[in-house]
Amino acid sequence: MEWKDSYDIGVEKIDCQHRQLLVKLNEFFDACTNQKGKEKIEETLKFLKDYTLEHFGNEEQLMSEIDFPELAEHQKTHAEFVKTVLELEESIKTKGVSVLSTIKLNRTLTDWLINHIHKCDRLIGDCIAAKGNKAV
């Protein structure tokens, strides 16, 4: 997948983190395409755990600072994503890596990029613009 300017929300720190996620997503896709998804899945899940702690914290702090009206709902979607990642990690620990687990991670990441970042996170940028704020 390629980064589209429409994914940018207008906050460099957040946009940079989103681009970093896309890089990891593409690395995982490439590994799957080359029949190496099983080898890459654990590394990708570790990245996601670290990424979500930092990124979601940054994003939620920003939303709080700008009085984002949908903060609670956004936090809920973040928590659901973390839960999905942890469940997938636990499944891999107990059952091992499977084709199904690589497909599930592919779908989860693609859905997150397309639906959450492109649609939900975009609203953060819109909120900042509507308030005439300059986000740092």
TrEMBL record:
Q: Name one Pfam family in it.
A: Hemerythrin
**Which keywords accompany this UniProt record?**
Iron, Metal-binding
Q: Does the keyword Metal-binding apply?
A: yes
Where does the Hemerythrin-like domain lie? 10-124
Q: Extract the InterPro entries matched here.
A: Haemerythrin_Fe_BS, Hemerythrin, Hemerythrin-like, Hemerythrin-like_sf, Hemerythrin_metal-bd
Q: What PROSITE patterns does this protein map onto?
A: HEMERYTHRINS
Q: What PANTHER family does the annotation carry?
A: BACTERIOHEMERYTHRIN
Q: Please state which protein family the record places this protein in.
A: Belongs to the hemerythrin family.
Q: Know the name of this protein?
A: Hemerythrin
Q: Per the UniProt entry, what species is this protein from, by scientific name?
A: Paenibacillus borealis
